[in-house]
Amino acid sequence: xxxxxxxxxxxxxxxxxxxxxxxxxxxxxxxxxxxxxxxxxxxxxxxxxxxxxxxxxxxxxxxxxxxxxxxxxxxxxxxxxxxxxxxxxxxxxxxxxxxxxxxxxxxxxxxxxxxxxxxxxxxxxxxxxxxxxxxxxxxxxxxxxxxxxxxxxxxxxxxxxxxxxxxxxxxxxxxxxxxxxxxxxxxxxxxxxxxxxxxxxxxxxxxxxxxxxxxxxxxxxxxxxxxxxxxxxxxxxxxxxxxxxxxxxxxxxxxxxxxxxxxxxxxxxxxxxxxxxxxxxxxxxxxxxxxxxxxxxxxxxxxxxxxxxxxxxxxxxxxxxxxxxxxxx
Length: 329
Ligand code: SF4
Ligand code: SF4
Known about the structure:
10 helices, globular
């Protein structure tokens, strides 16, 4: 499908149209000055100048705390009945899209997670270009993750070049063609930076736990977990079961957990597989820059910069990763 152009003054018409297709969410600045993905109700303008939201879009796919199974004596364990209505996320930056792509690999693999799968299939993704600041590393983070979206809006003078990335995107373009004009503007090559072209998988070397730089970083970590909460690709969770007072029913609940927390690595018998802070810090490093498990070799850092913005100790893993990688990529 040829690229089309939408003028900035027609954006509100596009948003009105999108509202007819489902619940519309986008970056909204609150009274506290923080930008969050929130409902884009009529009259609420998305904050397109904001570079990053407090929490990434993962909150829509993996709820912070949710029931994953109900138990009754008669029926045994049953999936909760969740009515998932069509939703549209507007204003996702390439790193946000790459983060969703990573979560898709985690939760839609061989054994798809039913709750995630239902929400994902009802979600339309609309990306938008941005200009990185000093906290972003997307432009120098090689990644095999694709920044896929149904529609992508590249900012140009006076508006946006709109490109479709799926049949759903084609339908949306077709349905708003009265406010689009065909154009031969090409989307600049670096629009989605590294996420445009999948790169080969790579393996950063293991960290040497005696490396002084490594130790210095780990010593500075407060273990607050903020970097993990705000990371688009951190998806560790804990599973808890709560028995009902009737003694014959129960709820199984999944809630976000955090590899920087001591409790995360504690298992039955009081054993811990990451017993001190340095080990927990290394664990996070491995996940972000090497990948592990089924996604070994797929770095999970999409370069959004959130962890660097929120860390109260001002820690940044990137210089260590770049040094181990033989210099900045
Ligand atoms: S590690 Fe930091 S910069 Fe990388 S994706 Fe996570 S929050 Fe963003
Ligand atoms: S935000 Fe900083 S201090 Fe808190 S757990 Fe992460 S690295 Fe440690």
